[in-house]
């Protein structure tokens, strides 16, 4: 703040210096005119030439000073000098010729009128320069603020721009939920003294936000404050309170205009940001609600089919067990087992996907043998696997990757179950694992119908079911691959799908290979 005080004193000194320079220049012009007047006088030129000379001088002075007071004073002085030096009796303020007083009056009037006009023109051009500058600044601010998409960005740019223009410290309290939020100060390097002032005056800022009016320095409300506080508002919504360090000084009308215009720009930018934010929130809410509704609808529908079949089969077993042939009984038991396995996997998937999305899962990565993981997964895949030919190929028996085992097992179950579900009986399904650089790749591929290119980009989306004719039943939630993707990504791997030649789909995903710490085993190889 000391620095700011110093800057303002400097500003005043510069102004005084400029004014003094104008005065000296005006005196110089008048002196020069008098010299030239003498020359004209010596050469025997007519009085009117000398009068014209003085008119020219006063005109020039008016252009330089652009001030009416100077015009009056110098018009008057030029008449006096003309009278004193160039009318008889010389070197006296009286005049013999009876026509002279009239000459003086006309000379003064002409000098005064022309110089006033010149000063006015000068002032007008000064004003238009100011207006042009103001328009440029506002346009620049407007463009700057439009580029900012965050609230913080808008506030920072707005304060920066105001500081550049007014050369006064700026503070900004964002206002939301009927509270002033943490203050933003510009320039950021603040002194302790400055912070004390702010905490002393925070009630003024609160008052301004609450009453949506100006307060503090130079206003009716607590004028002794160091800062002038203004509400940043648009359409009766207050988005913040802006403070300008005035400390007893006043803003001139130009500064005031600029301030109000920029304040309007900031408020407008904040309002747009606010509207966009609300729109985003409601879109998100609507999307979440839609997702929830979809999920509920799918689940209730999908749960009903296997549950009805379980209860129907169980009912049959309870009521007609004796009458049923051994073969049919076994079929019913198998169907119940199948349906419950499917239900367990569905619930597992649902639980994992919600936990993944809430970020509740903290992975505990541990080195695992790929072989163990593949065979463990195959134990849980659909019983229909018997109707397909399953092959497992592991390039290195000791292949290991870092993973949370039950999640990766779930990925493999989903991929193999899909391959069983979406290929005809007797199809081949292969699991192939190998290491490339520091990643392990696991492929699950089949020789079924494959997946058309336009579907490939959606199959990892939640609730996407690609209308494939499901061979064994209608059970499809469109969640399996979405979950696989979340799990693999959370492990730092990638998952993709591609075609098999001549037909079929190949899903493959990567996991970080376990780095064997040889030194721990004391081996060097
Ligand atoms: P769901 O199987 O419950 O429909 P998924 O997310 O597991 O959901 O699969 C999404 C879609 O991808 C499936 O509906 C199916 O159209 C397609 N798909 C997945 N795996 C295969 C496959 N091996 N062969 C053909 N289509 C498949």
TrEMBL record:
Its EC number is 2.7.13.3. It is a multi-pass membrane protein. The keyword Kinase applies. Residues 298-515 form the Histidine kinase domain. One of its GO terms (molecular function) is phosphorelay sensor kinase activity. InterPro entries: GAF, GAF-like_dom_sf, HATPase_C_sf, HATPase_dom, His_kinase_dom, HisK_dim/P_dom, HisK_dim/P_sf, Histidine_kinase_KdpD. It comes from Amedibacillus dolichus. It is an enzyme of class 2 (transferase). The chain crosses the membrane at residues 23-43, 49-66, 73-93. PROSITE patterns: HIS_KIN (PS50109). This is histidine kinase. It comes from the Bacteria. Gene3D superfamilies: 1.10.287.130, 3.30.450.40, Backbone structure of the membrane domain of e. Coli histidine kinase receptor kdpd, Histidine kinase-like ATPase, C-terminal domain. It catalyses: ATP + protein L-histidine = ADP + protein N-phospho-L-histidine. It is found in: Membrane. SUPFAM superfamilies: ATPase domain of HSP90 chaperone/DNA topoisomerase II/histidine kinase (SSF55874), Homodimeric domain of signal transducing histidine kinase (SSF47384). Keywords: ATP-binding, Kinase, Membrane, Nucleotide-binding, Phosphoprotein, Transferase, Transmembrane, Transmembrane helix, Two-component regulatory system. The keyword Cytoplasm does not apply.
């Amino acid at each position: 703040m000391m620095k700011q005080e110093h800057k303002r004193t400097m500003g005043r000194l510069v102004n005084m210096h400029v004014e003094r320079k104008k005065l000296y220049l005006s005196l110089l012009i008048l002196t020069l005119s008098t010299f030239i007047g003498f020359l004209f006088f010596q050469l025997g030129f007519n009085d009117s030439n000398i009068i014209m000379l003085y008119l020219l001088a006063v005109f020039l002075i008016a252009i330089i000073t652009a001030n009416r007071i100077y015009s009056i004073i110098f018009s008057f002085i030029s008449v006096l000098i003309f009278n004193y030096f160039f009318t008889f009796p010389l070197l006296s303020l009286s005049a013999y010729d009876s026509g002279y007083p009239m000459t003086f009056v006309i000379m003064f009037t002409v000098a005064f009128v022309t110089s006033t006009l010149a000063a006015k023109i000068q002032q007008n051009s000064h004003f238009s320069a100011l207006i042009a500058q103001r328009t440029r600044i506002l346009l620049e601010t407007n463009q700057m603020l439009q580029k900012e998409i965050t609230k913080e960005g808008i506030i920072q740019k707005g304060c920066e721009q105001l500081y550049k223009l007014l050369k006064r410290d700026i503070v900004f309290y964002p206002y939301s939920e009927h509270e002033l939020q943490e203050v933003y100060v510009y320039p950021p390097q603040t002194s302790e003294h400055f912070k004390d002032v702010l905490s002393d005056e925070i009630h003024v800022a609160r008052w301004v936000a609450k009453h949506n009016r100006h307060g503090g320095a130079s206003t009716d409300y607590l004028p002794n404050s160091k800062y002038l506080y203004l509400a940043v508002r648009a359409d009766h919504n207050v988005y913040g309170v802006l403070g300008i360090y005035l400390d007893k000084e006043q803003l001139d009308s130009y500064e005031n205009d600029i301030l109000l215009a920029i304040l309007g720009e900031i408020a407008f930018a904040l309002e747009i940001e606010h509207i966009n934010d609300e729109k985003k929130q409601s879109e998100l809410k609507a999307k979440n609600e839609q997702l929830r509704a979809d999920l509920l609808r799918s689940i209730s529908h999908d749960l009903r089919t296997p549950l009805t079949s379980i209860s129907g089969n169980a009912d049959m077993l309870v009521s007609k067990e004796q009458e049923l042939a051994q073969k049919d009984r076994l079929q019913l038991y198998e169907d119940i087992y199948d349906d419950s396995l499917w239900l367990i996997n569905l619930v597992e998937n649902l639980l994992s996907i919600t936990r993944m999305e809430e970020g509740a899962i903290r992975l505990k990565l541990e080195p695992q043998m790929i072989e163990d993981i593949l065979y463990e997964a195959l134990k849980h895949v659909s019983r229909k696997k018997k109707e397909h030919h399953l092959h497992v190929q592991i390039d290195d028996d000791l292949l290991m990757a870092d993973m949370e085992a039950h999640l990766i097992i779930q990925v493999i179950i989903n991929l193999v179950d899909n391959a069983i579900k979406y290929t005809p009986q007797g199809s081949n399904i292969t699991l192939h694992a190998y290491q490339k650089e520091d990643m392990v790749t696991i492929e699950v591929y089949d020789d079924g119908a494959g997946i058309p290119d336009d579907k490939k980009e959606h199959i990892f989306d939640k609730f996407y079911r690609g209308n494939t004719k499901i061979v064994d039943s209608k059970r499809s939630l469109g969640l399996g691959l979405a979950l696989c993707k979340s799990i693999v990504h959370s492990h730092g791997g990638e998952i993709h799908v591609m075609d098999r030649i001549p037909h079929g789909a190949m899903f493959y995903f990567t996991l970080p290979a376990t780095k064997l710490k040889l030194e721990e085993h004391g081996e060097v190889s």
